[in-house]
Amino acid sequence: MFKKILIANRGEIALRIIRACRELGIKSVAVFSEADKDSLAVRFADESLCIGPPKAAESYLDPKRIIAAAELTNADAIHPGYGFLAENADFAEICESCNIQFIGPTAQQIRQMGDKIFAKKIMAEAGLPIISGSEGEVADLSKAMGLAKSFGFPVIVKAAAGGGGRGMRLARDEKELEAVWDMAKAEAKAAFGNDALYLEKFVENPRHVEVQVLADHLGNIVHLGERDCTVQRRHQKLIEEAPCPFLDDETRKKLCESAVLGAWKIGYRSAGTLEFLFDKNKNFYFMEMNTRIQVEHPVTEEVVDLDLVKEQILIAAGEELSIKQADVELRGHSIECRINAEDPERDFAPSPGKITYFHVPGGHGIRVDTHAFALYDVPPHYDSMIAKLIGFGRTREQAIGKLLRALDEFVIEGIATTIPFHKKVLAHPDFVSLNYDTSFVEKMLGEEKKTKEKPAEPVEAGRSS
Hints:
Elements: E1 4-7, H1 11-24, E2 27-33, H2 40-44, E3 47-52, H3 63-72, E4 77-79, H4 89-97, E5 101-102, H5 107-114, H6 116-125, H7 141-151, E6 155-159, E7 169-171, H8 174-192, E8 197-201, E9 207-215, E10 221-233, E11 236-242, H9 249-265, E12 270-278, E13 284-290, H10 297-304, H11 308-316, E14 333-340, E15 342-343, E16 349-350, E17 353-354, E18 357-359, E19 366-370, E20 377-378, E21 385-393, H12 396-409, E22 411-413, H13 419-427, H14 429-432, H15 440-453
Parallel strand pairs: 1-2, 1-4, 2-3, 4-5
Antiparallel strand pairs: 6-7, 6-8, 9-10, 9-12, 10-11, 11-14, 12-13, 14-21, 15-16, 17-20, 18-22, 19-21
Helix pairs in contact: 4-5, 7-8, 12-13
């Protein structure tokens, strides 16, 4: 077992890893930028070390600074969390060359699944259903236009090295494809250092469902059920729940078995997530694999009663999985709301600044993962998520009820947050009745805008208002 783990991340995931380390009896090292010097991760880690200025490229995204910090503190492993260097194959290789264990899959597996074109190809070989699209990188707009005509509009342009919705553009006709091509290319280059694009047939009114897997070095693989991530805005997940509320048992079995088969195909080792799109007829298609712990892992933890970060660490230390598939039993229902420092009234504009008052909800069935506190300064340099609110109940209805109550109790003053937005979503009739797809948020916001812009009816003469 590791003696000391350096956490190459910040925010709530850094705290999450510190807690797992402490329960396993492992020392933790928090690295931090100058913007995070007063963070809870710095306070609660066994050791901490400043690695640079606020800019992520000069701190959390700099492999040299991370490795130097690990060597200086004699850390024998690095946990990358999610984001930053978590899916950077070169960084995983650097760790290995420095005799530091990277807590995650192999560099080859990260590279394979990071290449969306290769990932689709190898998963198709494993027998997973794949969305129609280009067989590889599309060289130019002319080629893209020909392919789009061959399998029909609408199509979606995607970054080959992408993720998180960046470098992704929808085109419903030739004119739109011409308009978005250069934008997608530029965004892919800026986000991933690679402007390669590929094309897929766009699945109309899709639902987004993912399967959590764990795999060890002995070839043992288990799935921990699925999560529904359909409530999104601009391809960014906002609400996740487990299990997926619209799946029947037969479809769930096929989906989860497909995920295990995909992980087996590449000899996967660590925690990972295979993501799928469902069409209106409940046919599912492999989309991508995330080779890391995900933001929404708590909803799975609640329904299977298992600490996924601990499992990740144990697998990296060479231990056998602590559970077998027969041991996995899903219980109840869990839903997570991502609380972001954003202003829903201003098109979700970032809202950094000082939190003047901070009250976290509690009570039965409520969990809050956060790194924020009263008088905390939310920095403008990083992702805007400041908390994850998770509700758990015996049924979906109970989980929704607990979350609505908890959102009323969650008080954050000094900055704008997405708390009011989540209240609207959870109470929306279409969300409650499962009548939604990935366009739900845009439709809901569009309806709100129309209502606000609707002129007031004139009052007739002689009538009192």
